[in-house]
Structures are given as C-alpha cells and as structure tokens.
Design a protein that fits this description.
The chain has helices at residues 13-35, 90-99, 224-243, 250-272, 283-310, 314-344; strands spanning 38-53, 58-70, 85-89, 107-109, 112-126, 130-142, 155-164, 171-175, 191-203, 210-221. It contains six helices and ten strands. Helix content is 39%, strand content 30%. The longest helix is centred in the last third of the chain and has 31 residues, at 314-344. Strands 3-5-6-2-1-8 form a six-stranded mixed β-sheet. Strands 4-7-10-9 form a four-stranded antiparallel β-sheet, with no helix packed on it. The chain is of the alpha+beta class.
C-alpha cells in the first residue's frame, strides 16, 4: 500500500518568502487606500446675478453647486433590497452619516456676506454608494479686489470661494470639466460678465490645510450709459465753451463759462454717487477735474480780457483772444495725452 499521499508537502523557505511578500503587499495596499483622501467632484454654476453693489463692493448670485463622491459603507449589501436611488434632505443625510460614524465633506463659502438662502438642498445615493449633493442657493459675496482706477473703462474680477472644512488628508476637491460656468441669462444689464474659470488651492483657516475651490469670472461695463449720459453732454459743454471764443462780448463769455463750471460740479456729484469713497482718483475723476480746471481758466482769461478792454487796451485783448481760439482745443489735446500717460503708462 502506497502511503506517499499522506506525507505532508515540504515547505521551502522560498515559498515562505513569497507568502510573506504577498501578505505585506496586500496589507500595504489596504492601508494606502484607507489613507488616501476622498475625491469630491465639484461643479458650481452661477445662474443669475441679482445685484452688483459698487459702493459696498459685493455682488449677489443665484447659483447651483453639486458634489459627487463615493462612500462604500452606504452601498447596498449582497441580497439587500433597497431602491436604486435613495433621496434625503441634506440635514437628514448628515445625521445618517453621523450615526454610522462616517465623514461628511462639510464646507463653507469664504467670501460670503450675511445669510445664505437655500432654494433646493438634497442628497441622492445609488446602490453602489455614489452620492450626489445638490444645493441651489442665493447669497451675497464680497468683492474686495475691486479697482476703479480706470473707471468707467475698468475690468473687475468676481469670485466665489468654497472651503472644505475637513483637512486634505480626508477630502479634496476635483473640478468637473466644464461644470463650473456662468449661466446664459444672468439678468445683469450694466456689466458684461465672461471668462469663467476654476482654480484649486488650499486654506488654513482652521489651523490645518484644507481644500479650497474658487470660481472666478471677469466683468467690464456696457459703455452706452456713460457715453450718452456723461461723455456726450460734457463734450457738448466743452464745444460750447470753445464757440464762446468767437463772441466779441467778454461779459457773455464770462457768464457762459461760469454756468459750465456749475454743470461740471453736478456731473462730479453724479459720478460720486456710483462709487465708494476712494482714496485715489479714477480716470473719470481726472477727466472731470481737468475739464473743470480748464473751464475755470477760461473764466479767468475772459475776465482778464474784459479788464484789458475796459482799460483801453482793446487791440491787445483782441490779439490775445486770437491765441485763445486755438489754445483752448490744444489745451484739451495736451490734457488728453497727460491722462493717457498717467493711467496707461
């Protein structure tokens, strides 16, 4: 009777080495996957612009934000009969995660002012544990980087910053390609808003590095209002002041130039109501101040010419007046070049 089949197999050291390496690799891969942060796909779409307040330096939006990530603990177990999609209100979903000891990608908006009003806020989970969090909200965001130096030809940057509260060792953002954009009907008539782009960075607001997602977009103004309501009337006033040089009555010139001074003061107050109290001059301020100064100079020149005429120096007054006819437009041309050099050098 052959009893060889009862003899235990010989385990060689080489076999033990292979088993040990495989076990170590399995353990290492398990720990590595457990230590990797959860990727949260994010898309943030600005659907409407409710307001842009230049004086307060903020803007209001209606936006839709969507998170997508996977939680294996919420997947259906073998043989478990649950719906393909489970719907939860946001707060109830957070309680579900808390009860199971699971983590939730809690977040906040870094530059939000005041309260946030949610119109829709819910969660959907499928049988594979894929989670979709959807929030449609209205909120006001700060825009502290407004720079009105070139007003009204200025370009401004608007942005929304979403901060993850758990550290980067637990959750990181992953932007959905093409998901973060501006809507087609923003409802904003004064500004042209475009060039939306997303950016990933980190913050340390809670003492640990956490993920930050930023959606930014550019804006520049429709110039029709400023051209029709401000620039065109000012140009007409400047031309009227120039035409007054063709009058021989210096007294009427003085009255006309004095009235123009009052108009420029009114325009200055009109512009001031649209902007915060700035610590610097804008392009429009410089233009109105230059116009104001030149018009004031015209008043002084006409008073001087009238004085020369009253003192029997009419020929000298007429000769100087001939220089003034061409000196007036040349002064504006020189002021224009000076403004261009100051603001666009």
């Amino acid at each position: 009777m052959n009893l060889n089949y009862l003899t235990p197999p010989v385990i060689k050291p080489f076999h033990l080495l292979i088993v040990a390496v495989m076990g170590w690799l399995l353990l290492f891969s398990t720990q590595s996957s457990a230590d990797e942060p959860v990727e949260v796909d994010i898309s943030l779409k600005v659907q409407q612009i409710t307001n842009i307040d230049q004086k307060a330096e903020n803007f209001g939006v209606v936006a839709m934000m969507i998170f997508r990530w996977n939680e294996p603990e919420l997947a259906a177990k073998p043989g478990e009969k649950i719906p393909q999609h489970r719907m939860y209100p946001a707060l109830k979903f957070v309680n579900l995660l808390t009860d199971r000891g699971l983590k939730w990608p809690a977040h906040s908006f870094y530059n939000m002012q005041g309260r946030i009003d949610y119109q829709t806020r819910g969660v959907m989970i499928d049988r594979e544990g894929n989670i979709i969090y959807v929030a449609r909200f209205t909120a006001t965001f700060q825009a502290p980087d407004f720079d009105f130096t070139h007003f009204p030809l200025d370009k401004q940057i608007f942005y929304l910053k979403v901060d993850m509260l758990p550290p980067v060792t637990e959750f990181v953002f992953n932007p959905v390609p093409g998901g973060s954009t501006l809507g087609d009907a923003l409802g904003e008539e004064e500004w042209i808003l475009e060039n939306a782009r997303s950016e990933l960075t980190t913050h340390n607001e809670l003492g640990v590095d956490a993920a930050r997602f930023m959606l930014s977009f550019e804006g520049h103004r429709h110039l029709n209002y400023y051209n029709v309501r401000i620039m065109l009337p000012v140009i007409i006033i400047i031309l009227v002041s120039w035409f007054s040089f063709f009058l021989n009555d210096f007294t009427k010139r003085i009255d006309l130039a004095s009235g123009n001074l009052l108009l420029f003061i009114a325009f200055n107050f009109t512009i001031a109501n649209d902007l915060p109290r700035l610590g610097y001059l804008t392009l429009m301020d410089t233009f109105l101040l230059a116009t104001f100064a030149i018009t004031g100079l015209v008043v002084l020149v006409n008073v001087w010419l009238r004085r020369l005429q009253n003192h029997g120096k009419g020929e000298l007054a007429d000769k100087l007046d001939d220089y003034g006819i061409w000196g007036y437009p040349l002064t504006y041309v020189g002021a224009g070049f000076a403004m261009f050099f100051l603001f666009y050098k």
